[in-house]
Amino acid sequence: MTNRIARSLFIATAASLPLQALAEHTELAPVLVEGELLRPGLISVNPGTESSVDAAELLKRIPGANVNRNGPLTGIAQYRGMYGDRVNVMVDGVHVKAAGPNSMDPPLSHIPAGLAGSLEVYRGIAPVSSGLETIGGSMVMKSSGHEFASGSEVESHGKLSAGYGDVDNSKRYSLVTSLANDSQRGHLAWSGEKGDSYNFDGNNTNYNTQYDRDAYALGYGFRAGDHEFGLDYSHNDTGHTGTPALPMDIVYARGGIISGDYSFQGDGFDLDAKVSYQDSEHLMSNYLYRDAPMMMGNPMNRYAYTTVDGGSYSFALTLPAYGGKMVFGLDGDQANHDADIYDPTNAMFHITNYKGVERDRVGFFTEWTGDIASSFNLEAGARVTQVSMDADDVSSSVKMGMMGALHQRLAADFNASDRSQDDTNIDLVLVLRQALSDTVDFEYGLARKTRSASYQERYLWLPLESTGGLADGRNYIGDVELDPEVSYQAEFGVNWHQGGSYLTPRVFYHYVNDYIQGTPTAAALAVNPQVLQFTNTDAKLYGIDAAMGMLIAEDWRLDGTLSYVRGKRRDTSDNLYRIAPLNGRVSVTYERPTWSAQVEAVGYASQDDVSEENSETKTGGYGLFNLRGEYLPTRQISLAFGVENFLDKKYEDHLGGYNRNNQNVDVGTTGGNQGNRLPGIGRNFYVTANYEW
Q1: Within 13 Å and on the Cβ side, how many CA atoms surround 177?
Q2: Most CB atoms within 10 A, among 102, 282, 371, 373?
Q3: Half-sphere exposure of 645 (CA within 13 A, CB side)
């Protein structure tokens, strides 16, 4: 029965895959069915022939998933309406922390598309074993080059890639090379990307969307008998990169992550362990790449320098139990954040935005998975997570006038508050999978999921926009005494497959208590009528998503996805902010042994259900057409080419944010242009070349 479920879920995965990824996984299908490389409910997507340098774009091929984008490299994961810290994002098994308090360097930006191996997303209710806080789902980005060979002879493998896109004059290069046998592995990887501001609607330009990023990685692994060790290091170095939906741009964001892992396959049990350490820094500017805001005729030049360091660990013991598998786990992480705002032209101006902020988590979980009857498979899990947070005293050099009085009062109130906060959160998961026949499986899920406040939501003492990438243009203050969010989740899904056809719809409902949302509280109004404060509210999210496909003829196939989510406040009549509208994509692919062609249609409905308290504006619906092709002149060389947004459609991505750059004269129709929706990318001719060995 388990194999039958795995087979249907593997077929469902194909709906999200670009052509070459589909072919790659088709070869692995027998292994996936007979083994457990792809657990039930886990969708795996490989980078395809797309031109994007941001691996977060892979999310758009997964039912229910999308991307909040504040700049070309700032893809913040969204899944079924929840985004940011609510979605557990792991990078090579590490929970990467953003150095920037506005998520200019979100976790998925730490592996460029050229170095990405796969993006795995737990569809629907994430198991408790997948991470510490998974109220909004869980996903894992994996890089390339970590594989052992099958024999004792040393094998050399690698991939050299280069690409160009004309919409932003972008150039990208990457190299992944490895040496491995069945007992040792080593790899080196490098990626470089650079692009100008992109064009839209003919010759118009969305200024301040240029980017510049380099990434490096190396690793070594050793295997002896039932023991396996690994040591890996990655470094991300982002240079001058625009973020027009935010009040500042990236001067640089750089840092490294070192991790070690160990696994042991014993007699009847498995042991897995991983530890990591991260150290990153980030510099932002509001005047180097745009005009600074003015006050009394003088520019308010600002830099923001932020850092994060911390470590993580995880241990899991897997045992056979009651005809299935039982996992006992301990995991946790610790992060320290600092952020200072200063004026490089005025040494007297300085604001301590965040100082000595600590957010520590430790979790214990147990999970059992197995068959409970001839056609029923059960996954049951429980987790207890302790979240401890604290912060040091803050200060501001602004002391004169009304602004100085406000700064000093808010700093004094914050410093006098009880900043040491502890939450004990309990997660419960119950998922039942039922095989009705060889072609139909049902899935029923119930869960209780939790999340504690982020450090921005709790410790933002001065009204600013350092809000984890909300990008709504509003200033916020935090609340030290925020309660954890608690979400009660229900889900029902069907997996139908017959021959080369499949359909996998899911319906879901989330009933969230103490949802953290910015609201106009008395404390916020005392600062400014436009300021919002993070408070506990009540919310609900519900919707449907599906993957579907069929073989039209021997060399033709049709694939598609559909996603819809509705997010509403339960305590008021307002809607939740920045929720993706109804959307879907359909592709028709023709494939021959040495070449292939694909036509893809992407459609988004209008989004009229917007948040009034976040001053969110509505967006219209749109449709895009993409043409893609691939040619394999040899077994080692492949050429990919295509045209994205073939009709050069002018559109506005509802998750793309608003323009904050007062020099961006092409975004709107008349002067200023600040506050206008950022336009989507125009027609893009692209080509990539790959050499593999």
Answers
A1: 6
A2: 102
A3: 22
Which residues, 6+ apart, have CB-to-CB distance to 624 below 8 Å? 601, 602, 603, 644, 645, 646, 647, 649, 651
Which of helix, strand or coil describes residue 74? coil
Maximal C-alpha separation, the chain: 77
State how far the Cα of 478 lies from the Cα of 481, in Å rounded to an integer.
9
Q: What distance in Å separates the CA atoms of residue 679 and residue 560, rounded to the nearest whole number?
A: 25
Short-list 287, 276, 209, CA closest to 247? 287
Which helix (DSSP H) or strand (DSSP E) does residue 407 occupy? helix 401-416
Helices then strands (H, E): number in the chain?
A: 5, 34
* Sign of the dihedral defined by the CA atoms of residues 107, 112, 118, 121, in that order: positive
What is the mean pLDDT of the segment spanning 166-195? 96
Return all residues near 548 (Cβ < 8 A) that are at least 6 apart. Answer: 15, 502, 503, 504, 559, 560, 561, 562
Q: How many domains does the chain have?
A: 1
CA distance 137 to 183: 35
Mean pLDDT of the chain: 91
pLDDT at 669 over 60: no
Between CA 602 and CA 556 the distance in angstroms is 19
The answer to whether 109 and 124 have CB atoms below 8 angstroms apart is no
> In angstroms, rounded to a whole number, what is the distance separating the alpha carbons of residues 643 and 625?
9
Binning pLDDT at 50, 70 and 90, where does residue 39 land? low
First to last CA, the chain: 38
Q: Report the sign of the C-alpha dihedral through residues 108, 113, 114, 116, in that order.
A: positive
Ramachandran angles phi, psi of 688, nearest 5°: -135, 150
User: CA-CA distance, 250 to 100, in Å (whole number)?
Assistant: 10
How far is the C-alpha of 213 from the C-alpha of 170, rounded, in Å? Answer: 12
Q: Which of 506, 585, 518 minimizes the C-alpha distance to 542? A: 506
Query: What confidence tier does 671 reach under pLDDT thresholds 50, 70, 90?
Result: very low
Structure confidence at residue 272 (pLDDT) = 97
CA–CA gap between residue 196 and residue 164 (Å, rounded): 12
Distance in angstroms (rounded) separating the CA atoms of residues 558 and 600: 10
Rounded to whole angstroms, how far apart are CA atoms 688 and 683?
Answer: 17
Q: Examine the pLDDT at 37 and tell me if it is beyond 90.
A: no
In this predicted structure, what is the pLDDT of residue 668? 59
Task: Give pLDDT tens digits for 196-206.
Answer: 999 999 889 99
Which residues of 472-606 form beta strands (DSSP E)?
476-477, 485-498, 501-519, 532-553, 556-569, 583-591, 595-604
Which residue matches tokens 């219209």? 620
- Residue-wise pLDDT tens digits, 13-25: 333 333 333 332 3
Residue 92 DSSP label: T
Give 169-233 as a 3 state SS string.
CEEEEEEEEEEECCCEEEEEEEEEEEECCEEECCCEEECCCCEEEEEEEEEEEEEECCEEEEEEE
Q: What is the pLDDT of residue 693?
A: 94
The percentage of residues in the chain with a pLDDT greater than 70, rounded to a whole number, is 93
Only one residue has tokens 């406000």, namely 406
Q: Are 149 and 182 in contact (CB under 8 A)?
A: yes
Domain encompassing residue 480: 2-692
Q: What is the pLDDT of residue 90?
A: 96
Mean pLDDT along residues 369-396: 96
pLDDT interval class at 53 (50, 70, 90): confident
| Residue 10 belongs to domain with CATH number | 2.40.170.20
Q: What is the pTM of this model?
A: 0.92
What φ, ψ does residue 84 adopt, rounded to 5°? 70, -135
Tokens 């198991």 belong to residue: 127
